[in-house]
Automatic annotation (TrEMBL):
It is found in: Cytoplasm. This is Glutamine--fructose-6-phosphate aminotransferase [isomerizing]. Keywords: Aminotransferase, Cytoplasm, Glutamine amidotransferase, Repeat, Transferase. The active site is at K361 (for fru-6p isomerization activity).
């Protein structure tokens, strides 16, 4: 049942080339410039015409929402707000009939997310679901949506569901942008082609697992961790920190790299491992200076970098190389080494990786 892997979590991490491909199957044909989300068929015009999108979710699903915020705003130029479902539902939020609410949930049973949907529905919004479990309560409560096809996720810590969510949300954003005309046909086709290539790139990162394991060995007994990223890699930093907390019980925090100097920098000393996602994208130079700030205070830096990056390699303690990909698609690739790092650290600490203490796979109480 674990397919030869020691834990479901590791199996699910390694399944991602397939689960990402499955989430695109029948929806994307890059060579024909074809993109179709069947479940949104009757709602594409409404999505493209929307003046605001509100995304709700919890935990990892909320992180996928933060990634989607960047992508929708960049490609479709629609303002997006991302809310914790638990805050949204008790806040008397302003929701108008023209708003689209996207609810993200692997299980489709999260109580707060379901309640957020009911509230938004009562105010007349159109609700889309991005769920993994077919026929789940959330899937049934929405007007329309697109399933992630990640397959059953057994490990409590979400991995393949996250990348499947980001995949489907990216397809939604591309659908809206294409319909609206905010994206050139050339870039539209280029992004579709790059998306079709993502499973192969994720596979390349998975082949670095041994290297990540060596780093995990060195930091097994760290008491704290900081994760930094900018732009689309900021939510990835949050997700990396959450994974580590959940399964290894090490205190970890994710921050937008530039926020560090507004407080968290005080935590940095020679005992503080700092994971920096520092890929070659539009914020690269800024992240390089954030790394310098950490090194100047003797922090130990593990950097996730783009293949062939010599500049950062010469500055930091450890690097994990990942292949180059368009900025928009980066989280699908950059999150992989962070999943592996948390997994190996937890295993080395002897934790129950698939069923960490105090956590349940679906949170059906508020
Ligand atoms: C993270 C994790 C939780 C869930 C959250 C939402 O690894 O498992 O943070 O992401 O409880 O669950 P769903 O997506 O089922 O609504």
């Amino acid at each position: 049942e674990k397919g030869g892997f020691e834990h479901f979590m590791l199996k699910e991490i390694f399944e991602q080339p397939r689960s990402i491909a499955d989430s695109m199957r029948g929806r994307v044909r890059a060579d024909e410039g074809h993109l179709r989300l069947g479940g949104l068929r009757d709602y594409v015009d409404r999505l493209a015409a929307s003046e605001r999108i509100v995304i709700v979710g919890c935990g990892t699903s909320w992180h996928a929402g933060l990634v989607a915020e960047y992508i929708f705003e960049e490609l479709a130029r629609i303002p997006v707000e991302v809310e914790y479902a638990s805050e949204f539902r008790y806040r008397n939020p302003i929701i108008q009939e023209r708003d689209i609410v996207i609810a993200i949930s692997q299980s489709g049973e999260t109580a707060d997310t379901l309640a957020a949907i009911e509230l938004a529905k009562s105010k007349g919004a159109t609700i889309f679901g991005v769920c993994n479990v077919v026929g789940s309560s959330i899937a049934r409560a929405t007007h329309a949506g697109a399933y992630t096809h990640a397959g059953p996720e057994i490990g409590v810590a979400s991995t393949k569901a996250f990348t499947a969510q980001v995949t489907v949300l990216t397809l939604m954003a591309l659908t809206a942008a294409h319909k609206k005309g905010t994206l050139s046909e050339t870039l539209f086709r280029q992004l579709l082609a790059e998306m079709e290539h993502i499973p192969a790139l994720v596979d390349q990162v998975l082949q670095k697992a041994e290297k990540v394991k060596e780093i995990a060995y060195i930091f097994t007994y760290a008491k704290n961790f900081i994760y930094l990223g900018r732009g689309l890699n900021f939510p990835v930093a949050l997700e990396g920190a959450l994974k580590l907390k959940e399964i290894s019980y090490i205190h970890a925090e994710g921050y937008p790299a530039a926020e560090m100097k507004h407080g968290p920098i005080a935590l940095i000393d020679e005992d503080m491992p700092v994971v920096v996602i520092a890929t070659k994208d539009s914020s690269y130079e800024k992240v390089v200076s954030n790394i310098q700030e950490v090194k100047a205070r003797k922090g130990r830096v593990i950097a996730v970098v783009t293949e062939g990056d010599e500049q950062i390699r010469s500055m930091v303690d450890f690097v994990i190389e990942i292949p180059k990909v368009h900025d928009i698609l980066m989280p699908l690739v950059s999150v992989i080494p962070l999943q592996l790092l948390s997994y190996y650290i937890a295993v080395m600490r002897g934790r129950n990786v698939d069923q960490p203490r105090n956590l349940a796979k679906s949170v059906t109480v508020e």
